[in-house]
Design a protein that fits this description.
heterodimer, A: 214 residues, 9 strands, globular, B: 268 residues, alpha+beta, Jelly Rolls, 5 helices, binds S-adenosylmethionine
Chain lengths: 214, 268
Amino acid sequence: MDKKKMFKIIDLHLEEEAGVPSNRELMWEDLGEWQMDSLKKMGMDSKHKLLDIGCGPLRFGTYAISYLDEGNYFGVEVWEPYLKLGRRILEEFEISKNYTMKIDRGFDYESFGEKFDFAIAQSVVTHMSVRQIDELLDVLKKVMKPDGILLFTFINNRFPYSVYYEMEEPMITPCKLDNAFFQALEKKYQVEYRKYPEGLERHPTGQAVATIKF
Amino acid sequence: MKSINHRNFCLNKKEVWDVRRKIYHSQGEGFLLFKGFLEKKFTDHLVNYWCRLLDPPQTHLLFPGKEHAFYPGCPCYYKHGRTTGLKVFYNPLWGNQHEVVSNEIAVSIIHLRSQIEGKAFTREISPRPGQRCVVPRLIITRNGENVLAPHSDYGLDEPNPRNIDLARVQATLFLSQIDKDYSGSGFVFTKNNGDKIHCERELGIEPGDLLIWRYNNVHEISDISSREDQVGFVRMLFPPEEISHKAGSISIIEKTKYLLRSMKRKLV
Ligand SMILES: C[S@@+](CC[C@H](N)C(=O)[O-])C[C@H]1O[C@@H](n2cnc3c(N)ncnc32)[C@H](O)[C@@H]1O
């Protein structure tokens, strides 16, 4: 991304009281493009409906909203300032397509009244407790279409550690996200878990990549 | 903004964002001055201790170079340029047992900075090998040209991308007064709009003022001079240093001398 645009995004974060400069802007293109490329490789096309879990200030949204048909992008986020910031970032990228984004702390994805073909949680499971991961699958089971796919990235920590997001939101990273953990979820929710699906590029920051098919 | 000083350094939410916009926004200056961060009795104390009373070899080891100087439990270090009169004291919080006032002031500034950067305060105050930890530094510059060449830190041009961190800010606690205790350029900072500012003169900086500035903006000190009867340019800085696993190249003689001296101090 050219420097001018990056500093403009930083300015918008400050104006909306959403965050100080961070990797978010530095890795804007790497992570945006990786997500787009991976979902396309998994079979996403413009007609599909996408749920972006932990969508942040629409970093991936700037790619996905442009690509998908009008209204097919749905984002959920816990950090409230991202709602308005996301809108301003889209303006900055001159993207005027319809999309839906909401602040949600309780996994109320059914309220969108939609069934999704794809869901993505890029660097988000890394902020969720084990209980929240379970809740996430529980609700996705209800809102994903049969054969719908969740693409997610994670880190298999040895112990839980906490994240103090923007020094405002306490979050706990999960641990022991090993095969046994996901196999138990597979069984519980009757889904298909696959680590490092074939054909995808390595994650730009080295996180593990996996899919769950519903 | 209410008065922020070393006893009262917690910003409320509105203040945090006001400060952040001044520092990070492209329309902001890139710095903020906290006038009167220290009361006079504290600046007097610090100058007295570090510039007049201390005999560094009693409390500090000679600085062995940055490579492996800082590790958990490492001592304080000093550097002394015989010709220029430059003195630098590296005072890790755990090593500086002899001047607790400096430690307390350092902690208040590190805390204030962490609020601005949006980073957990406890992240960089205890040493963990492989990570960074703040090592407060007290510097006395007496004479010199090109004292600090123009450069930026943690910016986009860092050779190692791991070192890029555009949220980082540095703090300079001024302890002496330009044109009274020293002359020359003083601290020259390039603002977010690219203009240079000679901080001490243009901002009317006095001892005890704290300047918080964006680390990745270019900064420099082109020249400083002071007479025999002047204390020089005295300031504290708070660089986050890389922490290594164990002691590196400190000479055994230096270390033994230091240990003997501290044993003697204990016995006395
Ligand atoms: C590292 S960011 C990644 C943002 C985005 N996925 C991207 O790649 O640009 C993690 C995001 O997840 C959000 N988050 C954390 N826990 C969440 C939860 N339970 N539900 C929704 N969002 C969450 C955080 O607020 C943050 O914006």
